[in-house]
Amino acid sequence: MDKGQLIEELSGSWDETKAARDSLVGLGAAVVAPVLDVLCDEESPVGWNVPADVLCRIGEPALLPLAEASASASADSPEVARRVLWALARLDVPHPGVYVPLLTHPHPRVRDNALSVLRGEGEASMRFVDRLLPLLGDPEPEVRKRAVAVFDAIGTGAVPELRRLRRQPATGPRIRSGALEALAAIDGPAALDDKDRAAWRRLTRIKRPAETPEGMHLCGSWYAVPSTDQAAVLDAFDLGGPEPVTLRTGAAAWNHDRHAWHRRRVHYKCARVFVSPVLDGWTLVFGDSSENTHRVESADDAEAEKVLASVVRRRCADLSRRFGAAQWYGMSCGDGWTAWCIAEGGDVVRHYDAFDAAEGGRAEDSHGEGPAHPAESGYLLPHQRALPDDAFDGVDLSDPEAFFARYRQVKERLGIPETCHANDIAARMSVDPGALGAHTRVEGAGVLALTVCGREHGHPAGALPC
């Protein structure tokens, strides 16, 4: 049977096409072009996984044709690009070194995909380090980002080469900057030498006085205390090793540590916190302490929320005894969770958690510890339902515009107030970190400070902006 007939037989089910797929794989390089045409044809009745399987099993002879398809005008279709890149990353090849020539391909999509494959090899990609180093200075930001990820996967074995690159002015500022980012990704500040650490601190000193505050992405938890005494705040949270940073750096560290995953290190989520400069008279402390993290992690799912709540309430009470008042706020960018705790003079006067309240709460009416706080006045609490059951009758709920139009209409007609979240309560009680701006009064310098875990294990790995 010739290759044309075999390709026609690819239009059956997965099981029905097995014989044709096997025969095409046996023909090897001779059928790469026509099978690739089927893969790239969005109108073809053949499921895209069928030709992709054939190309992946043919292996190395399909490498360059797939790379060219990825770079060609046909890949302007997101669907075609997805199919081609899927196959390109999964070729049955004898060793990953066959992807190395693609690192110099003129199209960034191809370079990026080759880097993705080499990243999956982890430490084994160290043998390609000389070919990888130039990608740290690639003109395309996404390619540079991927190159940093490859060096992170390689690990500490790449540190000497990266440090050598940092000391070679002829390589240019972009590639030296990429090497610095890769060093930070591998092992955080511990991977930097004294000269790089001094340069970072010098840049921070230059940028910090002229920095205009910007609203922070709110995902995680933070405390607020009415104090200008940073040393007292550090002592209250048992923090050490404070390193002055810009607001931008501190915010990035908080978000990085909240969302990061690290395969080589533990305690990366509880090693440090960001203690803000004084913002409109308040000091904010972002992040999780060792106690928060490990007591919650050691509890089962049913108990974790109760453990966190008890830690938060006790700490807020202790902080308010020392500073007169204290608040804790929590928000999630992923699932709508929001919570707050307010303490005054050593006592918790209000603790609210939207998820706990939705399940029944701990008090009769306020759904939390303590009565509703005046800061909540005029708002609906997140768990409260105010729309009537028939509010969306006749509305296509799959149409966002129609849904929100009806939502606004019903709210206005019935006079339903806005729903509050932790940042709204923070705005009334202390400072909303999501609304920082030129209007915010800033005193002193913020710091990244180490928790008990951080003093033992060091800063988390990862590059941070200055």
Automatic annotation (TrEMBL):
<dbReference type="InterPro" id="IPR011989">
    <property type="entry name" value="ARM-like"/>
</dbReference>
<dbReference type="InterPro" id="IPR016024">
    <property type="entry name" value="ARM-type_fold"/>
</dbReference>
<dbReference type="Pfam" id="PF13646">
    <property type="entry name" value="HEAT_2"/>
</dbReference>
<protein>
    <recommendedName>
        <fullName>HEAT repeat protein</fullName>
    </recommendedName>
</protein>
